[in-house]
Every structure is written in structure tokens, then in C-alpha cells.
Amino acid sequence: MRRHLLSSADLSADEVRMLLATAAEMHEVQRREVKKLPTLRGRTVINLFFEDSTRTRSSFEIAGKWMSADTINITGKGSSASKGESLRDTVRTIDAMAVDCLIIRHMASGAAHQVAQWVDASVVNAGDGTHEHPTQALLDAYTMQRRMGDLAGRRIAIVGDLTHSRVFRSNAITLRTLGAEVVLVAPPTLLPSGIDSWARADGLELSAELDEVLASGPDAVMMLRVQRERMSGGFFPTPREYTVGFGLTRDRLRALADANPEAVICHPGPMNRGLEISADAADAARSLVLDQVSAGVAVRMAVLYHLLAAEEVAA
Amino acid sequence: MSHDSLLLSGAAWFGPDGTARAGDVLIQAGRISEVGRVAAPSGTERVDADGLVLLPGFVDLHTHLREPGREDAETIASGSRAAAAGGFTAVLAMANTSPVTDTGEAAERVLDLGRLAGLVDVVPVGAVTKDLAGAELAELALMHRSRARVTVFSDDGRCVGDPRVMRRALEYIRAFGGVISQHSQDPDLAGPQACCHEGELSGRLGLPGWPPVAEASIIARDVMLAEHTGSRVHVAHVSTAEGLDVVRWAKARGVAVTAEVTPHHLALGTELLASYDPVYKVNPPLRPTEHQEALREGLVDGTIDAVATDHAPHARHDKEHAFVDAAFGMLGLETAFAVVHDLLVRTGRMSWADLARVMSIAPARIASLGEHGRPIAVGEPANLVLVDPAAGLTVDRDSSQSLSRNNPWHARSFTGAVHLTILRGRPTAREGVPTAC
To answer: All domains of chain B, ordered by start, with CATH?
Structure first.
């Protein structure tokens, strides 16, 4: 495969399918009593997280450990700029320790792209600002595919704060790459700028009416986290108004089930129960929220395998 | 090396009415003493100007020379070298240094350091408000009364956002014929993190957007304040079609407004940001094609008065942060002529007289610089530039006279180059290399 995973757009449909197939094998390994594979023995993987993360960081760490890599976590709050060191100096310092892979989470969009220009190690984007989160999109696709089969032609709604969501950006790309229909639902203030031409170019459907979209019987509904802080930015007036317009409430859960009895619900977490998703929806049998978490490790094992080990195996 | 007299033999130039002239130009004691067929006195340095075009020396309304405060990025001396190499005979040095140029003493210091470098007239711009804080007026009249004779005031880098402060400043400087060069950017519509033209690309890249309305709404407010106060406002680095439309409307109405555009807003587009390379991070941001085209049209039709570089040197490490954290700005002094010539003159959209107007005559008039932007005629001050319209130029950031390397034009090629810059009769740069002074 390639050396870095920076954007979901880096991956062709064949590459996504290959990664998902590898993830399925890795998922089987997780069921064994002894989970450790020797695949990345002697390799060093650094989790470089400039922003808080629990699930993404721990799942990358577990993924590395189960493949016998030496994994090290480096966390730092705030940008390196605020500490007087340039991002380039920070990452080149780490790179100079002959690491094989840098998994980077940063609050600034594009940080992983920039880092990839500066280091010799493979770089995995574990979330850059409001830009992308490609491994999240892979694990979402993996989770949905396990439940629903091939995603080509499936209708998937992504609902919520699209403006600030890297999960949305990566998911829209990966889902379209796999041939799914994608419909975006958000209040106008939480639609990214230029979304009209963007949606036309990428074949995304737009709607401001969640009820209409649910009535159309989507195969999956992906609810995005809405940060309460967005209110102070004037993006919406009150949580109550947001929930009435765009929350997956108990009533809407019923409407979804009526329109498509097989429909599933996803959420990348952490959930704001009662704001964008009701407890009934979060805990419903059709909710894949915990499956997503469990898939996270398998998918990240697959990514590390293809970036760091596959070429050797092939050779 | 200093010659009392200089003969430019076989130069071509253009009168203010656009008529082509050709012949020799003799410069003595800092002024043009003879034109036509000249028999030079002995000891005169002769410059073969065959095939070259003689223009009034360029005047830049907008440079950042970083001294005092960031002498690691640029000094008045290094910025002067870059200016001379780029064909400039006068540059206005913005006030956002550390400390800020907000007193007469600070302005005189900039003036004196410029004179010491001796390659270009360094004209200090005074801050509109103390410490650029946007709250209290700086000592505008004391700066004007100082030896620096400050007439252009700007909080550039920041917008004078408070309408009451802007109104008072405009009223106050009217008394001595000052002008406010406004960084037109409503801080509430384009916040401090805004770093990409707001549109599809900023949406895709997840970069905070800077919408055209943040520029146009401030220009609209300011031209109405200029009309109300009877004072003069200058729009720094206009970057949007919407902002340009407001300027056009105000000019038609008779408001005393002028505007400048940068070479990079004319020639570089938003799409470059897809690389997340901070060399392309500038404020206002690079805009999409339709805005670039509108700006070119605005420059050609006279709505935009001047080309200004917004030369903004930065130390390497200040550009090696994540994109939103990196410093705003790019170099421009050494490349401005080549970019504008290649884009607009070589393609026939502008004449040489137009080029002289936008790069010299109009900016000199806006800044009230009586000795610059003058006609090429006997008795006029010899602040001149000789350009070679056929020379090829490939930009190499590492051969820049600037101390900084944030050059967005690196590795690009242009047709047209500055051959010789002359300040008060003395060559200050030859083929991109400043003379020792």
C-alpha cells in the first residue's frame, strides 16, 4: 500500500475493501485468548496526540501492542506554537528516534499532511482539526458492512454538526468510494461553507428535514456529536431547539423503524444523550455504537499492518 | 561607487499620455538634466539601455520591514536591499513593529534607519491607534509634525473595527491631509483564526473561513465615513470582487477613496491552500479565480489605483507550525514587477503607462511623495527604474535579498526583470543585486 494514511481520499475502493477484509481477520484474532501477533515485532509506533482522546488513542495503542509493536504515547495539550516550538521541530525530534510510524491527532486541520512532509516515518492521521479522521470512517464502514453487507447502493444519513466534524468529512468520502448514497442533514448554520457545490461534485444529497429523511427509510443513520459550546458561537439557539429539529428522539426512532425495519444507528462518540441522540436510540438493538468501538482496534490493526508490514510479506 | 552623472543610452519610455519616446537620458546631480541625443560629459557612467524601458521608480504603499522587533525576519537595511532589487525607490513601512510606530520618535527612528541604509526612501506609516489596540488614537499629528512627516496611517494587520474610532481618526487627519490605509476585515465576521477564503475549499479542508462580506462591509462603512467626514481613506490589499464593487460605487459617488491590490491576490488562487503549505497563508487570504479576474479588471479600469506588495517576511520557524497557527504573509518586493508585467503588460491588458501609473505615480500621489512617481522629463528627480521586458526570471527563494524565505513564487518563471534602480541619480541595484552604499 502507501506510506501514509492522511485522507480518506487517499484510498481507492479496492484499498478500502482490502483494509476491511484485513480488519475482519484481525477481528477474529481478538476473539482468541492470546491476542498477540508477531507482525510488527521490533517496530516502533508513536501515538502523538496534541488533543484529548480516549477511544482513538487507546485503540491505536492496543492495535499496536496486539501486533507486538513497541507503542509509545506522547500527549501534549495545546499546539506546539503556544509553547514556542514549531510543529516541524516537535515531530522531527521524535522522528529522529528512528520511529516507524507516527499516529498524529492535532487540533489543527492539515497537521498530519504537513507532518508527512517533514518526517521519514509513516504518518497516520488520527484526526486533524475539523478536516478528516480516516480510520474512523474505515471503522464505521466496517461496522455497517458487517451488519448490512456490501454498502454499494445503501442509503446512509449523516446528521448533525457537519461544519466542525472530521468524522463527517472522512465518512462522506469513504462511503461514496464504496458506492453508498449519502444524505446530509443539518441546520444551515452547521453546514460547511461551499457545501452546495461540494455536494454536487461529490454526489451528496442535502436536507434540512430530518423527518423527511427518516421517512425515506435510510439503511443507516449516523448521528454526530453536537458540542454544547457551539451555542455560544450562535450556531443554534438552545439545546432544546436543536433536539426538536435534529435529535434522534424516541419518536423519530419509531419513525425510522417503521420506514426501514433493518435500519441501524451509528454514533462516533462521545454521545450527548438527550441532545443529538435519545437514550432509547443509543441503547436500541439497532444501535451499533459499541460495535464501532470494538471495530476500532481491528481496523487500526489492519491500517498498521498495510502501512508497516504488508510490503515485507509481499516481498 | 558614486558617479555624479549617469547616461542611459537608447532607453524607451512613455509619456503620461502614453506616447512612446526613445533616446538618451542624462542624469546629473540627482535630476534628469537632458533627454534626446545627449553628448555625455567625460566621466559619465554609461548604461546601455537598448531594448529596456525606463519608468519612474516604483513606490510600495505596503511593506513590513519588521524593524524594530523582529530583526531576525527582516531589517530596514535588508528590506531596503530587497526593495532596490525589485525596482522600488520608495517604500512605506507599516507600523506593526515592536514597539509599534505610534509616536513621532518611533517614526523618526524608522526614517533614520532607512536613510542609513540609503537604498530606498523608507517612509514610515503611523499607527491609527495606540499599540494597534483599536481603542485610543495614536499621536497622529505629532507623527505628522515629526521629521518623518507621516501622512499615511494604518493599523494594518488589524482592522480599525470600532466605527467611532475610525470616524474620529478620519476627522482628525483631515486637518493635515492624512489618509488612513485600512485593513478591511470585520473581526467579527473573519475572526483571528480565519485563514482561508470561505467557500467549498475551506469547507473541505476544515479551515476557518474568511468570507468576502467581512471585507466588503468594512469598505462600505469606511467609504461612507470618508464621505461624512470629508476625509481620505485608502483600502489596503482589496481581495474580493464584492469589496471592489463597493470601491467602484464610492468612486462614482465622488468619495475620496483609493485602493491597492497585491501581486499575489492578482495571480495566486485559493487552490494552493489544498497543500496546507503555510507559505500560502496570507491575510486577506488568496481568493478563487473569479475574484482574481475581477481584481485584474479593476486594476486595468482604474478602480484600483495601485499595486502594493504587502511584503511580509517571517522567520522560517514562524511558518513551520500547523496551518492555522502559522504566521500570515509572504514576500513580494523582489517579484512584484515581474508578476504584474508578466500577467498584465506582456499579455497586452495594460500599457507601460498603466504600469507606471499603478506601481509609481498613483502610490506616490496617495502617500503625498512629491519626489517620486514623476514624469521622465528634464528637471525631474532621477528616481527611476530601468526594466528589461524580455528578460526571463526564475525565482529562487534562496537568492533573495530579504532575510526571510517565505516566498510563494519560488521556482516560478516570469518574463520581465528589473535591470537598474536609480535613487536620486545613484544606482541602488543592478540586475537584482543592490549596490553597496
So the answer is: 5-54+379-434 (2.30.40.10), 57-366 (3.20.20.140)
- B379 close contact with A: CB closer than 8 A: no
Domains detected in chain A: 8-132+295-314 (3.40.50.1370), 134-292 (3.40.50.1370)
A-chain CB neighbours of B322 within 8 Å are 79, 81, 87, 106, 108-111, 114, 129
ipTM of the complex: 0.94
Helix (H, G, I), strand (E, B) or coil at B263: helix
Distance CA B63, CA B83 (A): 9
* CB environment A106-124: b (16+ within 10 A), e (fewer): bbbbbbbbbbbebbebbbb
Alpha-helix runs per DSSP H in A131-194: 134-148, 166-177
Minimal C-alpha gap between A107 and chain B (Å): 9
Per-residue pLDDT of B47-101, as tens digits, reads 999 999 999 999 999 999 999 999 999 999 999 999 999 999 999 999 999 999 9
> Do residues B206 and B257 make contact, with C-beta atoms less than 8 angstroms apart?
no
On the 0-12 / 13-18 / 19+ scale of CB atoms within 10 A, B23 is middle
pTM above 0.80, yes or no: yes
Task: State the DSSP code for A21.
Answer: H
Distance, CA of B119 to CA of B81 (rounded, Å): 7
Report pLDDT for B1: 41
Give the residue carrying C-alpha cell 452547521.
Answer: A190
Nearest CA in chain B to A233: B188
Question: A114–B276: do the CB atoms touch at under 8 Å?
Answer: yes
Cell of residue A181, nine digits: 448514497
> What's the half-sphere exposure (Cβ side, CA atoms, 13 Å) at A239?
12
Residue B345 is placed in which grid cell? 503588460
Per the document, the length of chain A is: 315
C-alpha cell at B86: 525589485
Best mutation site among A80, A114, A164, A169 for testing chain B: the one with the most B CBs within 10 Å? A114
Residue in A87, A192, A198 nearest the CB of B322: A87
Give the Cα separation of B239 and B264 in Å (integer): 10
Residue type at position B394:
T
> Under a CB-based contact definition with an 8 Å cutoff, are residues B93 and B154 in contact?
no
DSSP, collapsed to helix, strand or coil, labels residue A181 as strand
Q: Name the DSSP class of B309.
A: -
DSSP tag of B436: P
